[in-house]
Amino acid sequence: MNPTHLSSIPADALITVAGTVGVGKSTLTAALAQRLGFKTSLEKVDHNPYLEKFYHDFERWSFHLQIYFLAERFKEQKAIFEAGGGFVQDRSIYEDTGIFAKMHADQGTMSAVDYETYSSLFDAMVLTPFFPHPDVLVYLEGSLPSILGRINERGREMEIQTEVTYWEKMHGRYAQWIDGFDACPVLRLNIDEYDVNDPASLDEILVKVGRKIEESRREKTGSNV
Ligand SMILES: Nc1ncnc2c1ncn2[C@@H]1O[C@H](COP(=O)(O)OP(=O)(O)O)[C@@H](O)[C@H]1O
Ligand SMILES: Nc1ncnc2c1ncn2[C@H]1C[C@H](O)[C@@H](COP(=O)(O)O)O1
């Protein structure tokens, strides 16, 4: 049962956790969902047929990987829509286009025509009724050294073998991206300021999440109560 001070989070809410690779999204997603009794929508890395190939040859596999992620995330969005919410989601669909695809297009590891095809497919998919925008996007931020430490600690060889400059560029892009992000309300969290193993710390986050959701739903309905 939810503690009473968390009851401001509606049972149909969609909370999405965003941030760069290794920052702690999956870990926080699982912890918040457990605390709330929500379902999780997790990014599945182990069965991705392109990810490892992509890290070995960005140019050859960028487009395939983006299409694969887009299809997977769209299926997840549809499942969330059909269940009527009540989910914590690990990574947003907005990051695929706003960070990854754009970064590879800009650095020339995705061709201009592939990027154009991908972007038009993305736009068409996002404008469907199956696309529930999150009630709140919890954005995790931290220093590059802490994040690199976490990537190493997690131990996915393909990520550890990738040049540090890749993670550095991504870290910079995320910082810019979140400053301009306005598709839904954002709650920024510094990774040094919560303890994922401490229920009181998770509850502090959830109280802030609840406030954001209340604010945004109030604005949507135009009510002042
Ligand atoms: N709050 C935290 N404090 C310390 N280590 C963490 C924390 N959150 C995640 N980690 C560790 O950091 C690594 C990356 O976390 P993960 O949740 O897989 O990141 P992401 O999903 O953002 O890529 C894992 O080894 C995880 O155990
Ligand atoms: N859209 C994407 N393009 C390229 N790579 C991606 C994309 N989405 C996720 N990834 C990669 C990054 C990591 O190696 C794994 C899982 O991400 P994580 O942030 O650890 O959950 O997939």
TrEMBL record:
GO molecular function ontology, one term from the record: deoxynucleoside kinase activity
Residues at the active site: 90
Protein origin, superkingdom: Bacteria
Signal peptide start-end: none
Keyword Transferase: yes
Binding site residues for ATP: 19-27, 150-154
Binding-site residues for substrate, renumbered to this chain: 43, 55, 66, 91, 96, 159
GO cellular component, one term: cytoplasm
Tagged with keyword Hydrolase: no
Any matching Pfam family: dNK
CDD domains linked: dNK
Keywords annotated in UniProt: ATP-binding, Kinase, Nucleotide-binding, Transferase
Domain Deoxynucleoside kinase: 15-209
InterPro entries: DCK/DGK (IPR002624), Deoxyribonucleoside_kinase (IPR050566), DNK_dom (IPR031314), P-loop_NTPase (IPR027417)
Protein family (similarity comment): Belongs to the DCK/DGK family.
PANTHER family, alphabetized: DEOXYADENOSINE KINASE (PTHR10513:SF35), DEOXYNUCLEOSIDE KINASE (PTHR10513)
Protein name: Deoxynucleoside kinase
